[in-house]
Specification:
By secondary structure, this protein is mainly alpha-helical. The protein contains 15 helices and six strands. Helix 2 crosses helix 6.
Length: 432
């Protein structure tokens, strides 16, 4: 077998200090060849040269490379490169800059953008404002993400705009390579109008009913001898409501991150924000729920390994965010059935982020300091936390005893007293 083809970029600055010639040194089939690309004035750059090197190495592997054919400068390719090619180049660079959870979101955007063959083969230079508007209208008719097809729900304006934002970033790259003159996906006129969101959170009694419905559902499956998609539905929702993590943090949690032997806290590794790693203090109610979850353990009564997921599937793999969202929708439906029969107010549409706001509101009702709540949630921007704080402080009728049962810590008295815990200084953030 011949040696694997290799190559590198060989730039040559000119004495004028303004011009750089770009060349490639390629070794294939035992021979070394120099491929002249052009100068920076002709549109060549290190990024563009890297793309050309990748293409040549791919052609060598396929056996289709013709070294005697000169490489055309970028300026001659205007309007010929397709959206698919430019998007692939953009994604290769973008993927190296973002986290895994963010990458999955961008992959979803790209899957919609490139779903139609005619669209993905559109020459990048032909994408104009009308093309973007037609894409926007098409996206608005597509099924909603993470919703059952029979629901008939379509993509929200926010989701449509997220796809258009990805297209705008791709066209930014095309502008850098001088493949397009302007970016047709930029500007408010190309976007759908997003209504001001109604930021709901659950009342304390709703939280209790939600957890009870989740526990009853799992007991039904156990009684029918049907394996659950995951065990610990009640405990996972308790963590989301009473611990305030992001859904990505919850599903990525390992058993070893939880101290349930008296410390009652959860150390979340550094991830999405500049807040870094943080320690979440677990209320007495939540810590007891999690101890029960660990004691129940998966099949065959084994303990959860410290390096294994805290919320595994029956196959011992890590639970996915989609699994949690579907489970939450089912639990909300069951909860509303119970509350409807009891003539109680029904739960609004509930998402994992609703449960984060619920945690913040319960903290404020229990008298916690806003700065401490920000540290628990992992917010570096105070606006969202203070918005919940302001609305919570307007509440006049609150079941303080129920709030305290859910939110007190093990070292606090069992009975709530007014002003007992305002300004609490419990530890929040630690360095990685």
């Amino acid at each position: 077998m011949p040696p694997r083809a290799t190559g590198y970029i060989d730039p040559h600055p000119w004495s004028d200090g303004k011009t750089v010639s770009w060349r490639l040194q390629v070794r294939a089939n035992g021979r070394r060849r120099t491929v002249t690309l052009g100068t920076n004035h002709e549109g060549w750059s290190e990024e563009r040269a890297q793309v050309e090197l990748d293409n040549i190495l791919a052609e060598i592997r396929r056996g289709t490379w013709r070294p005697d054919v000169p490489v055309a400068p970028p300026a001659e390719e205007v309007g010929e490169e397709t959206l698919h090619v430019t998007a692939s180049r953009w994604w290769k660079k973008k993927q190296a800059e973002i986290e895994e959870s963010t990458a999955s979101d961008y992959q979803w955007r790209l899957s919609l953008l490139l779903k139609d063959r005619e669209r993905r083969e559109t020459p990048i230079g032909e994408i104009d404002e009308q093309w973007v508007d037609e894409l926007r209208d098409w996206l608005a008719r597509q099924p909603a993400r993470n919703r059952r097809p029979e629901s008939g729900a379509t993509l929200s304006p926010r989701s449509v705009n997220m796809v258009l934002d990805a297209l705008a970033q791709i066209l930014d790259l095309a502008q850098d390579y001088k493949l397009v003159v302007g970016n047709a996906a930029r500007g408010k006129r190309r976007r759908m109008r997003v209504p001001t969101p109604s930021r709901f959170w659950l009342e304390p009694d709703m939280v209790v009913d939600l957890l009870d419905a989740a526990g009853e559902w799992e007991q039904e499956l156990i009684a029918r001898r049907r394996p659950s998609q995951c065990y610990g539905r009640r405990e996972l929702l308790a963590l989301l409501c009473l611990g305030g993590p992001r859904i990505s943090e919850a599903v990525k949690a390992d058993r070893g991150e939880f101290d349930l032997a008296g410390g009652d806290h959860w150390r979340i590794p550094a991830a999405k924000t500049d807040a870094g790693a943080r320690v979440v203090d677990l209320t007495a109610f939540l810590a007891e729920e999690l101890r029960g979850h660990v004691a129940a353990s998966p099949a065959r009564g084994r303990q959860i390994s410290p390096r294994k997921p805290m919320w595994p599937t029956v196959n011992a793999t890590r639970l996915g965010e989609g699994n949690v969202r579907r489970m939450l929708r089912e639990v909300v439906e069951r909860t509303n059935e119970r509350r409807g029969e009891a003539d109680k107010t029904l739960l609004p549409e509930v998402t994992p982020h609703t449960l984060r706001r619920t945690f913040a509101s319960l903290c404020f009702l229990a008298g916690r300091d806003p700065a401490w709540v920000m540290g628990q949630i992992g917010h570096t921007d105070a606006r969202l936390t203070l918005e919940v704080y302001a609305k919570t402080m307007q509440r006049k009728r609150v079941d303080r005893d129920l709030v305290w049962r859910l939110m007190r810590f093990a070292d606090e008295p069992e009975k709530w007293s007014a002003g007992a815990r305002t300004g609490t200084t419990i530890s929040t953030t630690v360095s990685p």
